[in-house]
Design goal:
By secondary structure, the protein is of the alpha/beta class. Helix content is 27%, strand content 10%. It has a three-stranded parallel beta sheet with strand order 2-1-3, with helices on one face. Helix 1 links the parallel strand 1 (7-15) and strand 2.
Length: 182
């Protein structure tokens, strides 16, 4: 999309993974899918993404006008798409590791700590290495900042249930029943 009369030569990459398929995946997987899109934007030379999470049943509002990213995280370059000259909307980030002309690295959505290349659908998955963890950690620190509401809920949950214990991780999910109720 072109925004005439806006900052010449400026560009933003709109990251909206559910435009084509959100796979009804959970929060963590959808976040990794989003990071795959951000890495594709970077490989295309656009280092200013803006993130939208819409109409993905597992982690998003049922209303496609609501940016559900903001339910969990601080906005990423909020409103930039209306202030720049060039706006790129990615349709899919699938197959990044097959795109030799782009220096993207491998997709992270299907990577694992063990070899799953013999499992149908995971033939191209990679092992999560120290280098891969560092690459993703850098993206997480740059773009994924829990919003104040989530930080407060986490603080309350920690003090109520986890304080004094060694915690390896916490699984977060948002349940939606088959009839659409939360």
């Amino acid at each position: 999309k072109k925004n005439l009369g806006k900052s010449t030569g400026s560009a933003v990459c709109v990251v909206d993974p559910a435009v084509t398929d959100c796979k009804s995946i959970g929060l963590a997987a959808f976040l990794l899918y989003t990071l795959d899109h951000i890495m594709l934007c970077r490989a295309l030379g656009i280092n200013r993404p803006t993130v939208y999470w819409r109409a993905c049943n597992s982690v998003c509002s049922g209303d496609p006008r609501v940016n559900s990213w903001n339910w969990y995280f601080e906005p990423v370059n909020h409103g930039l798409e209306s202030k720049v000259e060039n706006v790129l909307c990615l349709l899919r980030a699938d197959g990044l590791n097959k795109t030799a002309q782009l220096d993207v690295g491998s997709e992270i959505i299907d990577n694992s700590f063990k070899d799953r290349t013999d499992v149908e659908g995971y033939e191209d998955s990679k092992i999560i290495t120290t280098q891969e963890r560092m690459r993703i950690n850098k993206l997480l620190r740059q773009y994924v900042k829990p919003n104040s509401r989530i930080r407060e809920k986490l603080r309350m949950f920690y003090h109520r249930y986890l304080a004094g214990f060694t915690v390896l991780g916490v699984h977060v999910s948002r349940y939606r029943s088959l009839d659409g109720n939360k």
